[in-house]
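Reviewers of the previous submission asked for a worked example of the structure-prediction workflow described in the proposal, so we include one complete record here. The input consisted solely of the amino acid sequence. No template or homolog information was supplied to the procedure at any stage.
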Amino acid sequence: MRITPCGAAGGEVTGSAYLVESGSAQFLIDCGLFQGGRRSEALNVCPAQSSASTLAAVLLTHAHLDHVGRLPLLYQAGFRGPILGTPATLELAGLILRDAARVQLFDVERKNRRLERAGKPAARPLYTPDEVEQTLRLLRPVPYRTPVPIGPGIEAVWQEAGHMLGSASILVTASGRKVVFSGDLGPLHAPILREFEPFADADTVFLESTYGDREHRSFSQTVAEFQGIVEEAARDGGRMLVPTFAVGRAQLLTVLLAEMFRKGRVTPFPVFLDSPMAIEASKILHRHPELFDREMHEFLKNGNLEDDLRTLRCTASAEESRQINQTRGACFVMAGAGMCNAGRILHHLRHNLWKPDTHVIIVGFQSRDSLGRRLIEGAREVRIFGEPVQVKAKIHTLGGFSAHAGQSDLLRWLAPVAHRHPRILLTHGEDNARSALATKIRDQFGLDAALPALNVPIDL
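From that input alone, the workflow returned the following structure tokens.
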């Protein structure tokens, strides 16, 4: 068996994709988009370009764009096999890919107006909405914890990863070997979703390491900090801006605000879910209560969420989004993109970063060179749509709301299989995070962990 990391390796966090070559078949684990600055986005080419038409399948760990965003490129290259994932993953993948195509068209149209004025050739999007629709016809659902045949002598099992709705780690058995791909793992004890379920038997483990070099604050501490920010902003009439990943964080923050309103901690103020994708993702979330944890079921049983959130406004259209700027006093705005690299959050930041009473609440990972990373690193001036904007807003980083496991939770996920002395390869992390996690794995389990390079084959 040979496995080639075609993304999320060599220090890259995004673009997850593994080409698995066994004696009887070739297939991909994930096919994600590189995100962040221009350096990362320049890597967005089709993985397995020359062999796309002969791939047996694509196996999805979950639906975030950095795990599904290059699927239409694979379709362009001739792939027509099944794309396998849990039912919730497939629903969300459709939502996320359609949105990605719309964003690309919008960005290219704006860019082409500049190119036309400069007399330069027009740019093209990575893929079109029609190509996304053709790709989505290949989606096929699989259940959790049930072996699924992939090719002759090859099967795969999906098991809960606790990262987002429908997320999974995948165990592939082929050529007499068992290889686990962790996908992205969620933190233990976070609300709404079930916790991850580790595998206990494997010869090789590909483990994510996004936060391999640090711990998050406990969830309870993070909630207390979040509540303090909200109470301060509500008291002072400040605007709260949250660059929000549409699936996961938006729904979590909505539930936390509902709880604050229900308990009377603050007087309800306008809450804007300013993301068509997050609005649809929330609907998908409520269609899958079987994936909720016990605490979420209790919360829903003990009150009326609609009553708690009577000030919530879902602003689907661009005009509704613009009207948010007319709101006076305290308000809470959740808008994408989560890394501040595109989307409506850029407009809100341009209008409000220079105001001292604005609070920007960062609740997810910010990749290298992204605007979000520059804000949390203390930039005093940034450029948005080519315009310099002073940063006078208060910038808060709440890592405890991350959908990624911290270092100790990564080690807890690995512990049940560590006694088998598997080969361990760390991906989906910057080099400092991978190196720190490798050191911890050696100290705790006596195992050496390798740091794979991008597009360099690994023979098992």
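The CA atoms of residues 160 and 348 lie 35 Å apart. We consider this example representative of the routine output the project will generate in years two and three.
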